[in-house]
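Technical annex, item 7. During the second reporting period the consortium partners agreed on a shared format for inverse folding records so that results from different sites could be compared directly. Each record opens with the tokenized structure and is followed by the designed sequence. A conforming record, contributed by the partner at site C, is shown below for reference.
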């Protein structure tokens, strides 16, 4: 079924997954790269169209799965060893570049490979509509791989030298690329750097916790994350409203939140209250002496910045010490200020606030701290009717505790793929 050739496996193929506008309304074929098929074998689709440069196709021994994480920066999140392939048609020209007389041949070759490949009981041919009239897909699977391992730690590179916190990698590819090849005779510097990572076993998780079948993931997930379904996973207003809903219901919870998350122990539990959008502040907690400002940031930066260093931070700080304290009848208030941020945004917000008036009066709190607090609360109150949607809230928070931003296109592809596999 594969294009057999006795060639030394001395090349690395790096794939950049879940990129491109086509993912907005179509199922990304590369989603299969993250699953084992029902036959417990692991197949890879080479983006963008399944084809591989004939010069490298038979030499590829390792496939790295990566994503672009910013200007000239990339992160490798998994690796796999080529076990079989390239399969029939992979080295042919892509049909997406115009009429291709070899398309019928490619389809026949691929059907023979894929006739027994199923995910969640559904054949890959049916999942991707391979036999529909007018379909111009040539490739369904490019390689079979083994030893699929997710990264156990961050493996980050930069195309720029001396990029603080990122290891330099030599490459001739731009940010827009979806795949690139490395070998001793092609991008040798980058090849050596990647080999060092590939062979360092401490950088990779065990195979049994890295790859799973559709059935296993369906059992684990049970249902998709609610905010992903409604496309609100990055909506700051929703998270602020959700936080206020719980904190305003329970003064002890508010006291514990201040103590365990904000590391502020002076809040008076008996007389504290939580307010939403008081003087446009996301969350405000106050007792008879203390005023706590909480700004919640997910995708947005600090607003209202002016050349003189003023911003929403200085405005809120002055209001808390002035108008808000007066309205609450607090003499000489003890004002504390905080910014809640996803873990992956910490460095950006920290750098931003240092340049602003009153910025250093704000303490930055990572979402991982908020998640840990409410996840512990969930174990205590999971079935308490007074705290509905608490599990959904923790799932929503969890997507923001990683050091890299969640990939919305990936999540959309994942849930679409799982849904299709369950359709009759």
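Designed sequence (site C submission):
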């Amino acid at each position: 079924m594969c294009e057999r050739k006795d060639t030394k496996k001395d090349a690395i193929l790096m794939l950049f997954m879940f990129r491109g506008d086509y993912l907005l309304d179509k199922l990304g074929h590369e989603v299969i790269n993250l699953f084992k098929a029902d036959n417990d074998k692991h197949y890879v689709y080479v983006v963008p169209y399944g084809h591989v440069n004939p010069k490298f196709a038979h030499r590829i021994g390792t496939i790295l799965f990566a994503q672009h994480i910013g200007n000239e920066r990339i992160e490798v999140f998994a690796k796999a060893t080529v076990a079989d392939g390239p399969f029939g048609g992979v080295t042919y020209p892509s049909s997406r570049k115009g009429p291709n007389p070899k398309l019928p041949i490619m389809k026949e070759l691929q059907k023979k490979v894929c006739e027994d490949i199923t995910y969640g009981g559904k054949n890959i041919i049916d999942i991707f509509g391979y036999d529909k009239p007018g379909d111009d897909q040539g490739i369904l699977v490019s390689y079979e791989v083994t030893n699929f391992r997710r990264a156990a730690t961050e493996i980050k590179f930069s195309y720029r030298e001396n990029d603080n916190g990122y290891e330099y990698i030599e490459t001739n590819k731009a940010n827009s690329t979806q795949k690139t090849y490395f070998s001793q005779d092609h991008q040798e510097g980058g090849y050596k750097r990647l080999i060092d990572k590939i062979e360092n076993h401490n950088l990779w998780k065990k195979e049994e916790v890295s790859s799973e079948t559709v059935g296993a993931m369906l059992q684990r997930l049970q249902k998709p994350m609610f905010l992903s379904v409604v496309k609100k996973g990055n909506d700051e207003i929703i998270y602020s409203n959700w936080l206020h809903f719980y904190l305003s219901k329970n003064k002890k919870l508010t006291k514990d939140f201040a103590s365990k998350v904000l590391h502020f122990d002076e809040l008076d539990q008996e007389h504290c209250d939580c307010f939403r959008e008081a003087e446009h502040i996301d969350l405000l907690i106050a007792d008879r002496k203390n005023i706590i400002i909480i700004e919640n940031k997910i995708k947005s930066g600090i607003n209202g910045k002016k050349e003189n260093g003023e911003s929403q931070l200085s405005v809120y700080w002055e209001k808390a010490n002035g108008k808000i304290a007066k309205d609450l009848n607090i003499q000489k208030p003890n004002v504390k200020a905080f910014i809640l941020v996803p873990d992956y945004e910490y460095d950006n917000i920290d750098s931003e606030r240092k340049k602003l008036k009153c910025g250093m009066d704000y303490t930055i709190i990572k979402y991982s701290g908020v998640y840990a607090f409410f996840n512990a609360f969930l174990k205590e109150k999971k079935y308490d009717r007074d705290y509905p949607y608490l599990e959904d809230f923790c799932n929503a928070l969890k997507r923001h505790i990683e050091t890299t931003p969640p990939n919305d296109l990936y999540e959309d592809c994942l849930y679409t793929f799982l849904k299709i596999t369950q359709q009759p």
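The radius of gyration is 26 Å. Residues 95 and 138 are 6 Å apart (CA to CA). All partners now use this format for quarterly exchanges.
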